Amino acid sequence: MFSAIKRFLIGRPLKSTELGEQKLNKTKALAILSSDALSSVAYGPEQILIVLVTLGTAAFWYSLPIAVGVLILLTALIFSYRQIIFAYPHGGGAYVVSKNNLGTNAGLVAGGSLLVDYILTVAVSVSAGTDAITSAFPSLHAHTVGIAIIFVIFLTILNLRGVTESASILAYPVYLFVLALFILIAVGLYKVATGAVPPDLHAPIGTPIAGVSLFILLRAFASGSSALTGVEAISNAIPNFKDPAPKNAAKTLLMMGGLLALLFTGIVYLAYYYAIVPNAEETVVSQIADKTFGRGFMYFFIQGTTALILVLAANTGYSAFPLLAVNLAKDKFIPRMFLIRGDRLGYSNGIIILGLAAIILIVAFQAQTEHLIPLYAVGVFLPFTLSQSGMMVKWLKEKPEGWVPKFIINTTGALISLIVTLMFFLTKFQQVWSILIFLPIIIFLFHRIRKHYDAVGEQLRIAAEQPHVPIEGNVIIVPVAGITQVVENSLNYAKSLSADQIIAVYVGFEREEEKAFEEKWKKWQPDVRLVTLYSHYRSIIQPLTKFVDTVEHKASQHNYRVTVIIPQFIPKRSWENILHNQSSLLIRSFLLYRRNVIVSTVPYHLKK
Amino acid sequence: MFSAIKRFLIGRPLKSTELGEQKLNKTKALAILSSDALSSVAYGPEQILIVLVTLGTAAFWYSLPIAVGVLILLTALIFSYRQIIFAYPHGGGAYVVSKNNLGTNAGLVAGGSLLVDYILTVAVSVSAGTDAITSAFPSLHAHTVGIAIIFVIFLTILNLRGVTESASILAYPVYLFVLALFILIAVGLYKVATGAVPPDLHAPIGTPIAGVSLFILLRAFASGSSALTGVEAISNAIPNFKDPAPKNAAKTLLMMGGLLALLFTGIVYLAYYYAIVPNAEETVVSQIADKTFGRGFMYFFIQGTTALILVLAANTGYSAFPLLAVNLAKDKFIPRMFLIRGDRLGYSNGIIILGLAAIILIVAFQAQTEHLIPLYAVGVFLPFTLSQSGMMVKWLKEKPEGWVPKFIINTTGALISLIVTLMFFLTKFQQVWSILIFLPIIIFLFHRIRKHYDAVGEQLRIAAEQPHVPIEGNVIIVPVAGITQVVENSLNYAKSLSADQIIAVYVGFEREEEKAFEEKWKKWQPDVRLVTLYSHYRSIIQPLTKFVDTVEHKASQHNYRVTVIIPQFIPKRSWENILHNQSSLLIRSFLLYRRNVIVSTVPYHLKK
């Protein structure tokens, strides 16, 4: 039944050779990998105004130079990541770049931050999208957390179905959103040009403001640059592109950067010209749309696509998280299970764990985005800084032809990213301190896991010089619970193995019962030695283990192996298992994990 | 770590021979087994008044004859159960009595009702106790469900620690409650006698009332008799008493009956004399206490002990449920696991399942007692009726000396119990219909389980005439994932078993990889045959199972056995298991449960 539900939700399994069909073309890739970055224009400009409003509305003209700063940062990031795509065509982004150029620990800082960040991407985007919906339909407000969780589950299932299929569904909303905002900006600018908007609403550029300081301006800049989260997704997902993958990825990156720049500039400019004041009830985009179109079809079209793209932005996380996990797992820093492709060729374990972690975050933070965004931004700009510093080192080391402009691009990017990161720690320490505790822990775990895998590999390797010690003989122990077909079946098997000794062991809870059993046994199996053990604490495992230890100790001296044969009857229907005490399962796990004996289970299948 | 927590909560394990020390003396038994019945006086009288108030306060004098009816019922129950204790000294109560005298199905109806009823005992009592607390401290009202759940968890842990230890803790509140109510009744009666209470508050006995009908009076009687729930607990728990168990149990039963009668009569009389009107905000007992003492120390003492005894009444369920479950499990109607004594000699599985079920009920009904009480009462009076009918049949069949008065006692009890049961169905059908659906289902399950156990027993039995077919030989299959120490270890073991054939099986996901492996194998283990299987869907189990099926089919024709030897390396620390794909575990479970092959796991313990 479980597998039928799985089929319905996930679809039929795909053969490994069908992998090629799942690769992305540029149009679909733009939709899948850009929704996070593009959706940020829904809140990025607002973040700038929220800081500036503390100086008064006259200070809003500062949003224009700040936006220029963000655009410079964006340009630096886009060109830097374009260079990374060609330098690292197998993907990996910040993790691979930092690891190769700055050393393992820098790579792990970047990788660790990004892993967490993709979870935050899902949690933040879905929560923000849900907020947009519940703002439109206030009666749903009480169910915010539930709705957000449903969206996460929906996205998880989509992604388990496979990347291309998700893309077909997800491409439309992204393009509709871009279309909606372009119409908004175009009509808005037309109204500005024709004078339909009074030109005296906003304070002119250069108006002197009391109390303005570099600190506040940098803070506004840092807040605004939270709109650039998601820019790195493409460089992590190059293997998902159709061939030639790096070229297609680079083109997609440039398209995305261009769209993001246009939308961001348009929104910031209109917000300034319309003199929009941010408030908690209505978003800046909603206010611009309202002033441009009134509350008609276009208004709801813009709001609807905004809500949709925010929810789908979460999908960036679903594309990027499993691929980053694969890179980390290949380097043995996280469990191997992230390497396994599922029935539909996606990395199912990564997708499922991302979904679960996002749900936990949503529940813990009650789907309140404002508490998550600063942490989210730091988790993005830390790897930005590291990957671009890594590129700096790379150019300095390799010095290929024409490396100087490339070096300058990456240096600019690294410096601005570093400043943004530091600004978050300086101005929002209360919300981001946890990353300072969390990162060392995760990096410690990465190293711990790597150390384990290395140790295992070392121990499993077959060394040529190792002397081969053959096994001299076998001792078989059969725990028996009564005189039944199951036991007979197991004893017959034991006898067929031509072992040197077979010992049946019976654990009794009462002295008389023990004696009675011994006598019955003598009549039934006179040729098999029976050992009875008395259990003080009604436990079978304790006395049995003690006995096995004794036998094993003696056997190992003569290079004999000890096999414990466990008779087990298997009911016809699996629900019937709860009617039987699973002693054999317990005995098996206990002996196998703690003792050096072979555990063999002889099934006796019941016929009714 | 888990076992350390368990030790802390539950205490050290006890030897089976320490069982005697855990037996109850009369004083402790009275406290443990009577709290349910005694606590009922906190709400029993109120239930009568709630029905009568529909006729007007002048009708309250009817509470006195109705109380007499309840007392007659109580007397009949007490004497009937006294006879049951001596007739069935090994406990079992309604289940055993009904089964032995009326047949299996009657027994199962009684047993099924009681099993559910003990869960309701816990849920109702804990909820009522919590209500008493939250009434005293209204700020806690929002947390009713949470508090109730904490109480259930607390009681579960207490009972897992063992019966006697619980008793030491639980004895005080019960006796304090009895003391508190005796003081209340004595002082109340003193005030009545000295004329401190105006004698004209209540309508005199015999005042004619308009609209009175036998139906309403019977309904009031049925409601009032919900105060007798819990009377049967002692007869179910005879094995828990110190020797001579039946005599001690009978004495305890009489003591409990006497206490219950005195408290019940006193409360009903004072309520009538004080002309207490039941209301939703304040209980009847609280009103009497208020009028007698005012809101001073004695008032809070009475309210506090009432709340405490209600919570502890739930403990009756913890004493009775596991013992009834043992009786049902011995007769193979419920899973065998209820027979196992835990570390502290209590029947842990019964205790834990009771606690979980009660928590589910509390959450489902949001700790609202009023919706649970009718179901609870029906679940009690159904087995009352059955067990006393059973006793009637017993006397008629056996006709021992002086059986006529005994027969009359049981007949009276049976008739009144039947009337009460029917009254609940007639007057509160909306709240009790579910038992008519639930009981047939549970009885069907009982029979289903019994049938399974019987079938298993039949199949496991060794028949003398059965021909013995010896195993002719062994084929060993070793799934291998690479060329490692683990595989070598397993192959050495396989070779030592002198099997007729050893086949290594490799499942490849890519064609080239397969070829490369075959060549490496030829150099490494030229004497072991290697079969490589190609997996289209990245699954190891599917191709492996298909191969095992082929081999098994051929082997079984020659009476050969197939053993699948699974190489498994065991990490040193158990957390490290999540770092490795548990393929061997999956393969093992799959083959063992679905195929007729022996599965042998060869552990390779890592040293670091």
TrEMBL record, chains A, B:
Q: Describe its membrane topology.
A: Multi-pass membrane protein
Chief location of this protein within or outside the cell: membrane
Write the record's keywords in alphabetical order, separated by commas. Answer: Membrane, Transmembrane, Transmembrane helix
- Give me the segments passing through the membrane: 48-81, 102-128, 140-158, 170-190, 210-231, 252-276, 296-324, 345-367, 373-395, 407-426, 432-449
Q: Which GO terms describe its cellular component?
A: membrane
Q: Where in the cell is it found?
A: Membrane
**Which Gene3D superfamilies does the record associate with it?**
Amino acid/polyamine transporter I
One Pfam entry name: AA_permease_2
UniProt GO molecular function: transmembrane transporter activity
Protein name in UniProt: APC family permease
Native source organism of the sequence:
Ectobacillus ponti
